[in-house]
Every structure is written in structure tokens, then in C-alpha cells.
Write a sequence for this structure.
């Protein structure tokens, strides 16, 4: 059984949970719950030298980390749907979309961490604004270049949906008013991938 750190608020873990669901491999994966099994969850998180989640331990004990790497591994465990396109240009397009969406998530996470981990007197608004500008520019680019899929959403689309879902929770969904095309896109994704709603983070 593959063990993976569970977290209900992490958009990176959400990517992995959606990949597991789309691939139909829930029977091969155990998500280690932080509430029910905090010791094992913490041990697995700490096994990543970067101390980040998600981290995964494979059946033979191999440790792998980073949501991209974990999703790419999961994609090998069942033939369809193929989450990482094989054809060169399609693969590169999916990875580019995922990199942009990951970048939006990472910047939004850093905005959250500024108030979570830094004492008030040490916070630096210009730095926060710099991160937020990356989020805003990424969304503006995507609004002009709305992605699409042929037979099914791929890894790039999963990553984008998780980025938008994270902004819904952490930035009260303010992106929605200014990005009607992306909003419609997310509606299509939700319909195509029921696991998106099923993995929605708690509202607190
Ligand atoms: N590139 C990593 C990013 C993972 C990440 O930043 N996870 C956050 C939680 S949402 C984390 O573990 N943060 C703890 C830290 O940065 O120390 C991935 O795709 O897995």
C-alpha cells in the first residue's frame, strides 16, 4: 500500500487526491490522516528533507515527494485516463500549465505564511504585494489563454483547478468577479471531475 500524507487544506495534496480518484486506484493508496494518525502523518512529512507535504512512501519503502512527482508515479499505476500526455508537445503544454498553476499556489501559500509564521512587527507588505502580483498576473494570463482538454482533463488542468480552489478558500474567491472565462472553465472542470468537489477543503 502506498502511504501518502493527508491534509485537507493543502492544494498540493488535493492534486494527489484527485489523481488517485481519477485513476481509480484508491485501493492502492492509504492517506495518513493528520487527526486520526498524527504520529505517522508527522513521520512521513518529516521524511521529506524539505519538510513539505505531500510526501509518499511506496510499497518497497522508497520515499517520493512533490505533488508533481507523486502524481506522475500514480499515473503509471493504471492505464487510463492518462494524466500526463505522452506526445511531446501535449506533455510540455500540460507541464507548462501545471507550472503556472503551481506558481500561483506557491505565491498564495507564501502570502498566507507571511501572517502565519512571521511576527507582526517583521511582516513586509512589499514582499506580500510581490507574491500577490504573481497570483494576479497568472490569473490574467489564464483568463486570456483559457486551457481546454480533448477527452479528459490532464495533470495541468487538475493543478489549475486546485489553485483556483485554494484562492476560493484563502482569498475568499475574489478572483471570480474579474475572471469570467476562468470561472466558466472551473465549472466545466467540476462537472468532468467529481473528485474536485469531493476533495473541497474545509471552510475554516
Ligand atoms: N512543490 C511542492 C510544494 C508543497 C508545499 O509547499 N506544501 C506546503 C503545504 S500546502 C507545505 O508543506 N508547507 C510547509 C513548509 O513550506 O514548510 C509540491 O508540489 O508538493
Amino acid at each position: 500500500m502506498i502511504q501518502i500524507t493527508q491534509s485537507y487544506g493543502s492544494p498540493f495534496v488535493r492534486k494527489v487526491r484527485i489523481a488517485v480518484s481519477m485513476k481509480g486506484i484508491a485501493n492502492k493508496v492509504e492517506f495518513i490522516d493528520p487527526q486520526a494518525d498524527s504520529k505517522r502523518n508527522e513521520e512521513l512529512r518529516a521524511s521529506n528533507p524539505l519538510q513539505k507535504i505531500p510526501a509518499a512512501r511506496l510499497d518497497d519503502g522508497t520515499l517520493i515527494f512533490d505533488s508533481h512527482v507523486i502524481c506522475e508515479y500514480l499515473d503509471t499505476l493504471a492505464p487510463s485516463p492518462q494524466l500526463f500526455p505522452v506526445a511531446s508537445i501535449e506533455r510540455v503544454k500540460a507541464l507548462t500549465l501545471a507550472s503556472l498553476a503551481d506558481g500561483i499556489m506557491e505565491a498564495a501559500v507564501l502570502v498566507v505564511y507571511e501572517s502565519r509564521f512571521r511576527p507582526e512587527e517583521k511582516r513586509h507588505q512589499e514582499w506580500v504585494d510581490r507574491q500577490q502580483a504573481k497570483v494576479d498576473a497568472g490569473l490574467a494570463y489564464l483568463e486570456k489563454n483559457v486551457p481546454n482538454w480533448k477527452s479528459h482533463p490532464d495533470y495541468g488542468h487538475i493543478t489549475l483547478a486546485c489553485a483556483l480552489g485554494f484562492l476560493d478558500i484563502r482569498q475568499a474567491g475574489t478572483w471570480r468577479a474579474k475572471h469570467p472565462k476562468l470561472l466558466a472553465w472551473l465549472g466545466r472542470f467540476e462537472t468532468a471531475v467529481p473528485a474536485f468537489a469531493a476533495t473541497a477543503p474545509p471552510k475554516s
User: Anything to note?
Assistant: DSSP finds nine helices and four strands in the chain. The chain has two domains: 2-75, 88-196. Residues 94 and 156 are 5 Å apart (CA to CA).
